[in-house]
Specification:
The complex is a heterodimer of chains A (323) and B (287). Chain A has helices at 37-48, 82-89, 112-120, 141-145, 158-162, 164-168, 174-185, 193-200, 215-219, 226-239, 247-262, 267-281, 284-292, 308-318; strands at 4-13, 23-32, 67-70, 73-76, 92-96, 103-105, 108-109. With 323 residues, chain A is α+β, with helices and mostly antiparallel strands. A 5-stranded mixed beta sheet of chain A has the order 2-1-5-3-4. In chain A, strands 6-7 form a two-stranded antiparallel sheet. With 287 residues, chain B is an alpha/beta fold. Chain B has helices spanning 19-32, 50-53, 55-72, 81-96, 98-109, 124-132, 134-138, 156-159, 162-165, 179-186, 210-226, 237-245, 247-254, 265-272; strands spanning 5-9, 35-38, 76-78, 121-123, 149-152, 190-191, 231-234, 262-264. In chain B, α1 links the parallel β1 and β2. In chain B, α1 crosses α14, α4 crosses α5 (98-109) and α11 packs across α13 (247-254). The longest helix of chain B has 18 residues, at 55-72. Chain B is globular and about 55 Å long. Classes of the chains: A alpha+beta (323), B alpha/beta (287).
Chain lengths: 323, 287
């Protein structure tokens, strides 16, 4: 295999202060096998156009400032190898900022929305600290493991700007802030778990608005799986009894009741349980259309899993969650 | 080639609101000579929602489902992306955590079952692609889908998280998935090149946040339409419910007319194999 590749780079260019519309510069650059995207951005600036602007600092995958998108894929420029991107996308690569809506200049975006949501979850340790401690405040390895590596987040924003829920719902806190909420909620020294849980359970902005697409897990350069932290926050909210009784929480809990009764899910019953009778009314047009097409199973025809007794027994003996 | 046999985990939707999915799956399997043994004992996978409420229960239930495939000595195929996700997530956690596996097996022992980890779990799409082979399907096409522009819509839970799904999806890349596009081409259709094929339909917040759900599916559907799609095809019944049943609500939210037939993956295959509308349950489709 050749150690270099001739690549075509389409580079997003825009200066909010002077430009009406963005444009793309097309630049041919020969890249060698060990180069990362940041090397290419440096070469664009140093060898092609000194006005090309981007953020960079540590070059070691820890400051989180050089995050961009390549062909729509969230990328940490100093970490992601160019040849690996060529394997996915071919030899024409499009370099864009994380969000096209929030550009100041070229790759530099206004991350104000990211930081204000980050700030909203109280991203710091809230604890009664002894001002003159006489011994160390030791956290055991088992307790440290509860963080599930959430403390490795470098705030690059890759998950946040890859999250489709954020793109259509500007109130949604997004995966990075929620991961940070878990980072402190799983810390044995912290005293503000409930306070944060109330914040993240807010409808429209919190954990119940995650669409479960796993884009965040794919985008995270530290492989932290932010969505699993969101799941942990759900479970912790139930454990602490801080989940409000609403359509979303009943929807989660309703699965248990339905499984206990039929093994498989009773879709109609679940919607009824989640929405309540008045809420069901708004689904009548779809329900009618579905009924006409043979897509609704009547309660008396509801199929049941074979060996349902086993399922009932397992639910009774396993389930400890309360609502 | 030896006849392919799998244990079929239908999921709940295929037995209720998308009966056409089960019908068309069985019809094409029969036509292609693939044997699917129904796992009638299986329960709901929890659909990623029970997982938010009771982690242990969802693990035990999913492990129990896999046990029944193991008892048959067969690999499991799924026909719903979210079933695929929750079943394979359970499998991954149990196979990599002996302590957790022991805990789950302690529960399963109460009903005389044991999870061993001997059955693989893959979506039917990838059984067609990797085990059966598209060439062999193409050779049986009697009514090629010539001139039909197919927009593949992959659904999140077959392609993400890739480190998990790549065990069973032939290494499909979540940023440039190809399996359904390749299948459409093998059936004689044109595959539509559009950016939203790997995007989220929003199904999982449909009840609490219909606006988010409608906007997400709406932008993907308009992207397909604006790139001249005649139909959209999905391997996931939840994506299908969203884009088929909710199509008029989505159009309302987007402020544009949206009229596009949404087919289940096996319905597309069945049409090219010359199966009748009735055999493929097309009378159940709304769009």
């Amino acid at each position: 295999m050749s150690n270099t590749k001739k690549l075509t780079w389409k580079v997003f260019r825009f200066n909010k202060a002077t430009d009406y519309l963005p444009h793309y510069d097309t630049i041919e650059i020969e890249v060698s096998k060990d180069e990362v995207v940041l090397d290419v951005m440096n070469r664009i600036k140093w060898e092609h156009d000194g006005s090309f602007s981007y953020r960079r600092s540590c070059r070691h995958g820890i400051c989180g400032s050089c995050a961009v998108k390549v062909n729509g894929k969230a990328t940490l420029a100093c970490k992601d190898n160019v040849f690996e991107l060529v394997d996915i996308f071919g030899t024409t690569l499009t370099l864009e900022p994380q969000s096209l809506k929030r550009v100041y200049k070229d790759m530099i975006i206004d991350k104000g929305d990211f930081w204000s949501k980050y700030d909203a979850v109280k991203p710091y340790l809230i604890a009664d600290v002894e001002p003159h401690p006489e011994s160390e405040n030791v956290v055991s390895i088992a307790d440290a493991n509860k963080l599930d590596e959430a403390d490795y987040c470098i705030q690059c924003g890759n998950c946040y700007y890859a999250c489709p829920a954020v793109q259509v719902n500007e109130d949604y806190l997004g995966p990075a802030a929620l991961t940070k909420a878990w980072r402190f909620n799983s810390d044995v020294r912290d005293n503000a778990t409930n306070e944060r849980l109330i914040i993240v359970n807010e409808m429209g902005s919190g954990i119940w608005d995650c669409v479960k697409c796993f884009e965040c897990a794919e985008a995270c350069p530290k492989e932290l799986s932010p969505i699993s932290k969101i799941t942990s926050l759900h479970l912790q909210s139930f454990e602490k009894g801080l989940v409000e009784n609403n359509v979303a929480s009943r929807h989660a809990v309703g699965f248990k009741w339905s499984i206990m009764k039929h093994g498989i899910l009773d879709e109609g019953e679940l919607v009824k349980y989640s929405e309540g009778i008045p809420g069901v009314m708004k689904h009548i047009p779809e329900a009618y259309a579905m009924f006409k097409k043979g897509k609704i199973v009547m309660p008396w025809n509801m199929p049941k899993s074979k060996n349902l007794d086993e399922i009932k027994k397992l639910v009774a003996s396993t389930s400890t969650a309360k609502f | 080639m030896k006849k392919l046999r799998y244990a079929l985990y239908t999921g709940c939707t295929a037995r209720e609101s998308t009966p056409e999915l089960l019908k068309s799956t069985m019809a094409i399997a029969n036509k292609l000579g693939i044997e699917l043994v129904l796992l009638d004992e299986a329960s709901c996978c929890g659909a990623s929602h029970l997982q938010d409420f009771d982690d242990m229960l969802s693990l035990v239930l999913n492990a129990r489902n896999i046990c029944y495939a193991e008892k048959l000595g067969l690999h499991m195929v799924t026909i719903c992306n979210t079933c695929q996700l929750n079943t394979s997530l359970t499998k991954e956690r149990l196979d990599n955590d002996p302590e957790l596996k022991a805990k789950v097996n302690e529960k399963l022992a109460e009903v005389g079952l044991e999870y061993k980890g001997t059955s693989e779990v893959k979506h039917f799409l990838y059984a067609l692609q990797d085990d059966y082979g598209y060439d062999k399907i193409a050779s049986q096409v009697t009514k090629p889908l010539t001139g039909v522009n197919v927009a593949a819509f992959y659904g999140c839970h077959n392609i993400r998280p890739s480190h998990l799904q790549n065990h069973s999806n032939g290494g499909e890349n979540p940023y440039v998935p190809k399996s359904i596009d390749d299948l459409a081409v093998a059936l004689g259709a044109n595959s539509v090149d559009y950016g939203s094929s790997n995007k989220c339909c929003g199904f999982h917040v449909e009840l609490q946040n219909p606006k988010t759900a409608n906007r997400l599916s709406g932008s993907a559907m308009l992207d397909a339409i604006d790139n001249n799609a005649d139909i959209m095809v999905t391997p996931c019944p939840l994506c299908h419910l969203r884009m088929d049943v909710q199509q008029h609500n989505i159009a309302k939210e987007m402020g544009r007319e949206i009229k596009i037939p949404i087919l289940h993956l096996p319905q597309m295959v069945g049409l090219a194999l010359g199966l009748s509308d009735k055999e493929l349950g097309l009378n159940h489709n709304i769009s």
